Amino acid sequence: MQIGGIGEPTSASNYRVWYPLRALERLGHEAVFPNAEAHTPHDALLRCDAVIVYRSADPEAQDLIRRLRDNGVGVVWDNDDDYLNLPMTRQNRRNIGGTDGARVFAELVRTAQSAHVVTVTTPTLASVFAGAGVEGVRVIDNCLEIGPRPRLPHDGLTIGWIAVAGPPRARTRRGASPM
Fold first, then answer.
1. What is the pTM of this model?
2. C-alpha distances in angstroms, 124 versus 83, 84, 162?
3. How many whole angstroms separate alpha carbon 80 and alpha carbon 64?
4. 30 with 58: CB under 8 angstroms?
5. What gap in Å lies between CA 23 and CA 157, rounded to an integer?
6. How far is 14 from 154, CA to CA, in rounded Å?
């Protein structure tokens, strides 16, 4: 099976598009990856059996999803943010182009309704989309597998990070960590 992916050029595309494609590739599927700007040539996507579309909801993405569906390509539209209930901080307003969350959410819903399957990160977000009339919503958590990972021989340096499960620790005075 040939599976492609596109998404926004953000770090979240790593674990919402790149890592799933890599995992599918390890299972024997052929993966069509986006480039560094999260763009994948449309002609390559039209040859896929399925395409993961991460959060893209602009008119160009909506047109591409229609073209994919018309060509028999399965479309999985993925979103990990609740723009309907997004607090309107100054930074959030800049991130969504100064528009209000309800307007952005309406565009996301319109796009999601054109996909075969919609994936989100939490049951709450699934309920928000289902409540707006989106069918076929599934939850895929933002998480990595827990447990030891196989070591793969390679040349060079391996870089990793430490993540924590659960809420952040309480802060002491002046924002210092209690440790």
1. 0.74
2. 13, 12, 26
3. 20
4. no
5. 21
6. 21
